[in-house]
Design goal:
Blueprint (H helix, E strand, L loop, with lengths): L4 H6 L5 H17 L4 H18 L2 H9 L17 E5 L4 H15 L3 E5 L2 H9 L7 E4 L5 H14 L5 E6 L3 H11 L4 E5 L17 H23 L6
Length: about 240
């Protein structure tokens, strides 16, 4: 069952929704129940500090680096792709940019987007002909997306198919593909804006780093959940 996006935001540390929920709890403790004012203030300080820490680039990089490794594809190593699949999700700009690069090299006959119209519009602006793009709006979770991919591959077993997802989502995609025995060229895309990896800026909180922390924490939780349900195996 898909988790509504509002609920997903409310339960993911680093997200705006989670921050609003936590601030609401702190304000209730501080102003609605005066006897708990000290606890409320301490809670607000703790949440503010946690978000500052999650916004540090070195923290964001550390959380993301703890995800299972996913091998980047060497785009120069292949020249033909029959079908290119672009999964919608976090860091859409990076996914579109990677799709543009793959299309220029491999010239796939069909580009299939599993997600929002925004992705299709961006691909068209990037130079991919509209008549070569099809969109599927049904699958909304990574597991449903990969089930759809499995169905497509069953219909076209001889096609050379590549799939793009962000480098944060790709470990989960790769685990699902492995569990289902799918033959895919998996191409992780970059984060829209990568946090600094060296220098003094590693220790300066930014919204970019906070987003990476948020998305990486969600992936850690999702991978653990998938393993618990038996949908993927431990690496």
């Amino acid at each position: 069952m898909a988790i509504p996006s509002v609920l997903k935001s409310a339960i993911t540390p680093g997200s705006k929704g989670f921050l609003i929920v936590c601030l609401g709890i702190g304000l209730l403790l501080t102003y609605v129940w005066p006897r708990h004012r000290g606890i409320g203030r301490a809670w607000l300080v703790m949440i503010s500090g946690a978000y500052l820490v999650l916004g540090l680039p070195w923290v964001a990089n550390a959380i993301a680096d703890r995800l299972p490794p996913s091998r980047p594809a060497d785009l120069a190593s292949f020249r033909r792709v029959d079908t290119l699949i672009v999964l919608d999700g976090d860091n859409r700009v990076g996914r579109v940019s990677q799709a543009e690069a793959v299309y220029a090299i491999a010239q796939p006959g069909t580009v299939r987007v599993l997600g929002q119209v925004w992705v299709v519009d961006a691909l068209v602006k990037a130079g991919i002909p509209t008549n070569q793009i099809t969109r599927e709006s049904g699958p909304t979770t990574t597991r449903d997306q990969m089930a759809w991919v499995q169905g497509l591959l069953a219909k076209k077993p001889n096609d050379r198919t590549a799939l793009i997802a962000s480098r944060l989502q790709m470990p989960r995609v790769e685990a699902l593909a492995k569990a289902a025995g799918l033959r895919l060229i998996l191409i992780p895309s970059r984060i829209d804006t990568e946090p600094p990896t060296t220098g003094v800026w590693l220790f300066v909180p930014t919204y970019v780093a906070l987003r990476v922390s948020r998305d990486a924490l969600y992936e850690h939780a999702a991978i653990a959940y998938y393993r618990c349900r038996g949908w993927i195996k431990s690496s």
